[in-house]
Design goal:
Helices cover 48% and strands 14% of the residues. By secondary structure, it is an alpha+beta fold.
Length: 167
């Protein structure tokens, strides 16, 4: 986030290059902040937010431009477990409501299985696809369900096999 801009202005930043009126940029930024539950923090500065709130602002900034595909690279890795789980649930809710596709990179197998409809396991050097798993458990999902735990174990097996092949 840009430290010299308030939260609303940080969310609106990506909209400045679009041919939108100032009022429409503001409306979209406010709407995005409301979608991530931070409408009441719009006039705060970035230093006034917690790590989880900053992650939600980053998500709002991405959602405000209304992309067809949302690219996320380890967005929750630096968060505590409770905040991470809350944001995972929020991401699912927001993207399903908007009908958005998300390409999500993570090293956390449980996170991948919980969030994804399809998990692609990448391997070694040169990089290649080791395996693809379809996660057909319907949403909302129970993190502790045997089906998700079994799928996570299958993915772990693919990763262990990858490590043995590389050695």
């Amino acid at each position: 986030m840009l430290p010299w801009r308030r939260i609303l202005d940080n969310v609106a930043f990506g909209l400045e290059k679009l041919k939108l009126s100032r009022a429409e940029r503001r409306e979209r930024a406010e709407s995005a902040l409301a979608r991530v539950g931070l409408a009441d923090l719009a006039n705060r500065w970035p230093f006034q937010l917690s790590g989880g709130q900053r992650q939600r602002v980053a998500l709002a900034r991405a959602l405000a431009v209304q992309p067809h595909v949302l690219l996320m690279d380890e967005p929750f890795s630096a968060l505590d477990a409770l905040t991470r789980e809350a944001l995972q649930d929020e991401l699912i809710r927001l993207c399903r409501a908007a009908g958005q596709t998300v390409l999500f990179v993570t090293h956390d197998i449980e996170e991948a299985v919980y969030l994804a409809d399809r998990v692609v396991v990448l391997a070694g050097s040169p990089g290649h696809i080791r395996a693809t798993h379809v996660i057909d458990t319907p949403h909302p999902r129970d993190r502790t369900s045997p089906a998700l735990q079994e799928m996570a174990q299958r993915i772990r097996s693919d990763l262990l096999l990858t490590d043995r092949v590389a050695a």
